[in-house]
Specification:
Blueprint (H helix, E strand, L loop, with lengths): L1 E3 L17 E4 L3 H9 L4 E4 L14 E4 L7 E4 L2 E5 L4 H10 L2 E2 L11 H6 L16 E7 L5 E5 L17 E8 L1 E2 L2 E8 L3 H6 L1 H5 L4 E6 L9 E7 L7 H8 L2 E2 L23 E2 L18 E9 L3 H9 L2 H5 L2 E9 L14 E9 L2 H15 L5 E2 L9 H4 L6 H11 L8 H5 L5
Parallel strand pairs: 2-4, 3-4
Antiparallel strand pairs: 1-2, 5-6, 6-10, 7-11, 8-9, 8-10, 12-14, 12-15, 12-16, 13-14, 13-18, 17-19, 17-20, 18-19
Length: 424
């Protein structure tokens, strides 16, 4: 098993320096089990795309990067190694004529890390990525393998578990027949149209994203519409009319001025599901790289009011913001998922990498969203502590009890879990 003694390692954005004593890279399940059961605290290290210390520990970080590459096509599902990125599995899945229902905005993230933090794509009828999981296998604190399947009593707490129940070795994901998607961008939509007809706007495609910088004015930046190729729906002229917008005359990047070459093909050109659902291509740096991110999910019925509340604070936000993306997410039944039990609207903020400035504005932003029971994305920067978080999750106490039973010694504990009220 490879050991990486230099723990000056950082996350993808560079805003978190890991403080672990050592970083281990097991190359087999046997080595992984030995690393977990050797003693001391451990945490899994995935694609490093979290913007908080959720993955850190004062013990050993265990990277899954050198674990065997496992992709097994099953009837109606695919079994994959937890450390693989979505971009690593989609080609083989598509070649077998199968697809996932949705993907996140970038294919660079690991499957285990994405589902463990409740990461999502977009769509009125599409729940978080965790909802596709039908089985998860973990190495527990004693080094033993444990598989939890959909229908098991503890399944609702085992997929979005923030790395606190074990190291995920593999997952089984639901699949469906492969399909094509076409993506079209509409520039300068009117806020009045978006807010007054939000349900119509979010239903324009399989996945719809509204981008804004919250700058003053009556228009947002753009609406990106991703449609399944055979799905019925209004034509581009009707969509533009509904939005009070114009169809983009060339490729766009979510961040104005950034090079659109990094983005998935647009202009209404149909293509494979995995090459259109993400905003960014696997072989390019997603977004701008030099950034910090936050996200809050509110119940869908509060969408217009929550957006209006953030717009009212646009002056405090826009100066340190690259862009904000607004998307819909269907409800799931994972206890700690930010969209658990409620259809949701996510407001995702891509900030300039000035974490001090971001930390100063977060109380303003979270204060604006507090009346709408906003839940933060676990892997992105937020200011809310245990007292605010606990009442937002009806199964919070159930998860604490599950964690106490599975990991009574706190092998997978860390400062992050303590801070959010899920520690030992």
């Amino acid at each position: 098993m490879a050991t990486m003694p230099d723990t000056s390692e950082r996350n993808w954005a560079g805003n978190v320096a890991y403080r672990a004593e050592r970083i281990l890279e097991p190359t087999s399940i046997a080595e992984l089990r030995g690393a977990v059961s050797a003693g001391g605290r451990v945490r899994a290290l995935g694609s490093r795309h979290s913007f908080t210390d959720i993955a850190d520990t004062d013990g050993a970080l265990i990277s899954l990067a050198r674990m065997p590459r496992e992709i097994e096509i099953l009837p109606g599902a695919v079994r994959v190694a937890g450390g693989l990125r979505y971009g690593d599995i989609v080609g083989e899945l598509d070649a077998a004529g199968r697809a996932l229902a949705n993907l996140a905005s970038l294919p660079h993230i690991s499957v285990a890390g994405a589902v463990q933090t409740g990461t999502h794509g977009s769509g009125d009828r599409v729940p978080s990525l965790a909802a596709a999981v039908r089985a998860v296998t973990l190495v527990g604190p004693d080094g033993e393998l444990r598989t939890v399947r959909r229908g098991d009593a503890e399944f609702g707490g085992s997929v979005v578990s923030l790395g606190s129940l074990g190291i995920v070795t593999s997952l089984e994901l639901d699949t469906e027949p492969a399909y094509e998607v076409a993506q079209t961008v509409f520039d300068g939509p009117l806020w009045d149209r978006i807010l007054e007809r939000f349900d119509e706007v979010s239903a324009l495609g399989h996945s719809v994203s509204i981008f804004t910088t919250w700058a003053p004015g009556d228009r947002a930046q753009a609406v990106w519409v991703k449609r399944r190729a055979l799905a019925a729906g209004p034509g581009d002229a009707a969509v533009a009319d509904l939005l009070g917008a114009v169809r983009a005359d060339g490729p766009r990047h979510p961040i104005a001025g950034a090079v659109a070459e990094a983005c998935s093909p647009q202009l209404g050109e149909p293509g494979p599901w995995f090459a259109r659902l993400p905003h960014f291509r696997l072989d390019f740096t997603p977004s701008v790289g030099d950034e910090v991110q936050s996200e809050y999910l509110v119940p869908r019925q509060h969408a217009a009011a929550a957006i209006a509340a953030v717009r009212a604070r646009g002056e405090a936000i826009s100066s340190i913001l690259h862009v904000c993306e607004i998307r819909t997410i269907a409800a799931d039944d994972q206890w700690l998922s930010p969209s658990s039990g409620r259809d949701s609207v996510g407001l995702h903020f891509t900030w300039h990498r000035d974490e001090q400035a971001v930390r100063r504005v977060l109380p303003v932003l979270e204060g604006a969203l507090e009346p709408f029971d906003a839940r933060p994305h676990w892997g992105k920067v937020f200011d809310m502590g245990a007292e605010r978080l606990r009442p937002l999750y009806p199964r919070f106490a159930d998860f604490r009890a599950l964690r106490a039973r599975v990991d009574p010694s706190g092998v997978f504990g860390n400062a992050f879990l303590d801070r959010v009220g899920l520690g030992a």
